[in-house]
Design brief:
Elements (H helix, E strand, L loop, with lengths): L3 H15 L19 E2 L2 H5 L15 E2 L7 E3 L2 E6 L5 H11 L4 E6 L1 H4 L5 H4 L6 H4 L5
Parallel strand pairs: 4-5
Antiparallel strand pairs: 1-2, 3-4
Length: 136
């Protein structure tokens, strides 16, 4: 409870527990452990290329590890794992929530170095022509 993320997560849970959908039914909220906290190691920090516009990657910087940043694929769930004591229970909970899918855990620390995880890196990117306004 001394973790600064605790209060943020607790208040988010309270909000969800009081929320309703459009019909207005109460949301069914499932809790899952959080890994960590996870902090960037010296090896991880020195292994990130520094480019203009990137956020600095510093030793000891907290990384946003979460089992919820998973990807739903055809017939499966691809979920990050972190060599954390909660990995197995998180995968088990996801399997309970998605019994018709095969849950696969893949190491997620490397992706965290970029600031996201499995779900983040599977999202759509706009076509280059849509990024820069046309001069026409």
């Amino acid at each position: 409870m001394s973790d600064p993320q605790y209060n943020i997560s607790y208040h988010a849970l309270e909000q969800l527990m009081q929320s309703r959908d459009a019909r207005p039914r109460q949301l069914e909220v499932h809790k899952i452990y959080q890994p960590g906290p996870l902090f960037m190691t010296e090896a991880e920090s020195s292994g990130v290329d520094v480019n203009e516009g990137n956020h600095p990657r510093r030793v000891g910087q907290r990384m946003a590890g979460s089992y919820i940043n998973f990807y739903i694929a055809n017939g499966g769930i691809i979920a990050p794992i972190f060599d954390d004591p909660h990995d197995a229970s998180a995968l088990q909970k996801l399997q309970e929530l998605f019994p018709e899918r095969k849950v696969i855990g893949l190491p997620g620390r490397e992706i965290l170095l970029g600031g996201g995880n499995i779900h983040c890196i599977t999202q759509q990117q706009p076509a280059p022509s849509q990024l820069v306004p046309s001069e026409e």
